[in-house]
Amino acid sequence: MKLDEFFVTGEPLVYGGMVSIVLVTSAVIFLLTYFKRWGWLWREWLTTVDHKKIGIMYILSALAMLFRGGMDAMMMRIQLAFPNMNFLNAQHYDEIFTTHGTIMIIFMAMPFLIGLMNIIVPLQIGARDFAFPFVNALSFWSFFFGAMLFNISFVIGGSPDAGWTSYTPLSGAAMSPGPGQNFYLMGLQLSGIGTLATGINLMVTILKMRAPGMKLFKMPIFTWSTLVTCFIIIFAFPILTVALALLTIDRIFGAQFFTVTGEGMPMMWANLFWMWGHPEVYIVILPAFGIFSEVIATFARKRLFGYHAMVWSMILIAGLSFLVWVHHFFTMGAGAFVNSVFSVSTMLIAVPTGVKIFNWLATLYKSKIEFTTPMMWSLAFIPSFVLGGVTGVMLGMAAADYQFHNSYFLIAHFHYVLIAGTVFACFAGLEYWYPKMFGHKLNERFGKLAFWFFVIGFHVTFFPQYFVGLDGMPRRVFYIIPEWMPLNVISTVGAFGMGIGFAIFVFNIYYSYRNSEREKTGDSWDGRTLEWATPTPVPFYNFATVPHADKYDAFLAMKKKGETTFDEEKLKPIHMPSNTGQPIIMMAIAAFASFALIFEWITLAVIGLVGVLIMMGIRSFDYDEGYHVEVDEIKRIEREARGL
Amino acid sequence: MKHRQQHWRRWLALLPLSLVFLLSGCSELTVLDPKGPVGQSQKDLIVFSLWFMLGIVIVVFALFAFMVIKYRNRPGRGDKDYDPDLHGNTAIEIVWTVIPLIIVIILSVPTVTTLFDLEKPPESSGDKEPLVIYATSADWKWFFSYPEQNIETVNYLHIPTDRAIEFRLSSADSMAALWIPQLGGQKYNMAGMENTLYLQADESGTYDGRNGNFNGEGFTEQTFKVHAQEEEAFNDWVQETKNEAPELTQEEYDQLLEPSVMDEQMAFSNTHLKWVDHGTNEGRDYAIKRHRDAYQELLHLENEVKGDGKHD
Where does the UniProt annotation locate this protein (chain B) (predicted)? Predict the structure, then answer.
């Protein structure tokens, strides 16, 4: 293979990308060396098994991915507003919408939410870490290397270009040769391992490690949403794993599972993909519901309305999410009866979702609403999400879907639910729990400025797309007819509004780091759940003494009784896991093996795979039992943190 | 306070008015301006559902505005109307579960009946046999074969008005979707399979048709024009094509199958169905076998300002 086949050549935008990658990497290396921070980076972050630090790394990576996916979105919007400028050619446009979709779902939405779960769930249930801290680190590094692998494709080898759904036969070896599509397969496969492991890890954590007294139906609602999400992950992700593996075998080893030749079944891919893909959208929306519930209850200064109904509706949504996948391809011609069944099951999801909307509204009834930034995101979510929801029902009506399918009406719908749902929740959750993570709040003034830019920009971008969709504009076209121009220009203006909003949000992180007042108590918002019972910054063992939490809104009850999580008489040595470099090394080797497989360098891939197996062997004979934090040490840390 | 409420009401009264404007503007949107019974039934379904959705949106927005305005924490709010422990009310919860359920049932009935209707030719032209057209997608063009008339067109389509068209959809290679928004919704074209799609035009005119499903580099330009004509004019066109169009040879057809974007339109006085039907299991890999290398080449397509009238 020649060098110019290895690197992508001939695109000025790609050269720009290469230059910035080199510049940023050199800057990071320089700074780490100059400030002598390599050891710190290794000890404190790369080898950590602390769920809070892993969560922060998840969120930082997700923000970087949001930037990348957002840049892709901007480029698409520029192309569609000025199609005659030839900013992007057809092939480049195809690559960009493919990476935009894949990155936003797999490497932005999910890791962001998993990051928040990582930090908050153990704190909410009174646990000191995950059930399997080592596996948690492994999960993060598998996601991280999967994301890096996928992202590097645009400078090395070429980006995938068959859409984030990667439909066969288009994505098969015959029509999409070269490493691009392999990047998609291996990037998702590698990070999928981590997601599945996190699902199991969090499920066990929630089921086995709750504070004494905390029955399942006393758990905070965000923890409930996480638990339900874990079940979806555990049942859905193996389907993706198998589908990706089959397509990989097709592409690299010449099998015929999904090919047009050799009696393969291309349509089976669409089925397998959406049997994972539909539950996947609930994987990214249910935790968002959980975040909104927490934020709304906190800033409405009122108990969440209909807690049991909220929980059961999530369970119902999770169940139904496995029974609707065909609605992504009503137009495949499965017949009126099949389409009818999936049509009705799809619309049924609106019922539990509607129940949740009304419960949030009822939570606001007779409340005292404080308009903090996280609350603003949560409030904006309700009307915006309803617009996405009702159009979802319209898309669910199969006969009408024949007209909506793959049009901008669909694009508008799923951006309305994914941005108003998931992205708003990510921002709300990050700002809400920010003081718990970093010891200071984000500035409210800049936070609200970012909010208004982003939310208004969002509606300006996507509301016109419903209409341009009804006017017959299909998705994934790289130029448009003049009739569609005005609405597309409006969309592009809105997209820049969102971009400015995001930029202000990121600036606010820096600004608040410099200027925000440091938190002195752990209870920044007058919270209701156990995470606010810990001091800020949270000690690495979380709880000096684990409280007895037999009430809903456990911390509220503790505050009334004057209890804390630091009862000097009940202190005992705390058993904690040791840091380890094995997860990052194991996953780096796995990433190397995947990279080799992408370029079909089989020998190197086998060497990498053997390396992974060796690492597993080393781990299996690792007898490190962790260590104990002694009582005196706990006392010293807690007194300092609590200013006693 | 009273003055303010009146103010509110006046704005609320404007709301339905603005909806009327919105919907009248919508009637110019392609999908909401159908030219045949299939598109009409889908439009009816869309508009029917739209009213319910608007109702839901108005109710939720009104409740939302009420809650946010009334229960915001403002100076001097005090503890009036503040009940921090209020957390359930079975009656109201049943109401807001049952009403959406009823709406879903109301929407399901016309959805299901329309679905079954769309599997049959439209009733309005029940006195005539549907005209059969094989619509075959091949990267990135459209072949339309008229087996009864024994003619074939490339990248354009003539149909008679007031007669059902029975499209037999298939693809020579990647998955595509035949979509003529003004006549009705789309269905997939897949290699080795055949889908049936019934459409009908009630008004003569020229409509845009395209591939609705992304299938690679030339996707954007995989479009075609539909010319709907009165029966007589259509028959004239058929006769003219039969007399004047050249014959398609297998060799030429194989060449046409090579992946490319083709702006020109073609007509032939026979069909390719004689030697291959891509909708059958035997024909599914016909194109790939012949052009395996060509599928791997990039075309480097840019947006050119077209002068052939195809994109106007």
Answer: Cell membrane
The nearest alpha carbon in chain B to A82 belongs to B303
| Interface contact B216-A175, CB threshold 8 A | yes
Q: Is B220 on the interface with A (CB under 8 A)?
A: yes
Chain A residue with Cα closest to B99:
A351
Q: Do domains A1-264 and A284-518 have the same CATH topology?
A: yes
Q: Residue B104 and residue A348: Cβ atoms within 8 Å? A: yes
**Residue A365 and residue B73: Cβ atoms within 8 Å?**
no
User: CA angle, corner B95, sides to B94 and B99, nearest 5?
Assistant: 120
Q: How many Å lie between the alpha carbon of A557 and the closest alpha carbon of chain B?
A: 12
CA–CA separation, B79 vs B97, rounded Å? 31
For the stretch A124-140, pLDDT in tens is 999 999 999 999 999 99
Say which CATH class A284-518 falls into: mainly alpha
Contact B112 A174 (CB under 8 A): no
Kindly report the average pLDDT of chain B as a whole number. Answer: 89
Dist CA A482 CA A59 (whole Å): 41
CATH, range A1-264 = 1.20.210.10
B255-307 pLDDT, tens digit per residue, is 999 999 998 899 999 999 999 999 999 999 999 999 988 888 888 887 765 43
The domain limits of chain B are 2-71+90-118, 125-295
CB contact under 8 Å between B45 and A398, yes or no, is: no
Per-residue pLDDT tens digits for B52-62: 999 999 999 99
Pairing of strands B223-229, B205-211: antiparallel
Contact A402, B180 (CB under 8 A): no
Fold adopted by B125-295 = Immunoglobulin-like (2.60.40)
**A331 closest CB neighbour out of B186, B216, B299:** B186
Chain B residues with CB inside 8 Å of A89's CB? Answer: 300-302
Task: Work out how many CB contacts closer than 8 A connect A with B.
Answer: 289
pLDDT in tens, A323-365: 999 999 999 999 999 999 999 999 999 999 999 999 999 999 9
On whether any CB of chain B is under 8 Å from the CB of A316, the answer is no
Does B112 contact A at CB distance below 8 Å? yes
Q: Does residue A585 belong to the interface with chain B, where contact is any CB pair within 8 Å?
A: no
Identity of the residue in B39, B53, B84 whose CB atom sits nearest the CB atom of A303: B84
The alpha-helical segments, DSSP class H, found in A300-372 are 307-320, 336-348, 350-364
CB of A248 within 8 A of CB of A182?
Answer: yes
Q: What is the pTM of this model?
A: 0.94
In chain A, where the domains are located: 1-264, 284-518
Give the separation between CA A167 and CA B58, rounded to whole angstroms: 38
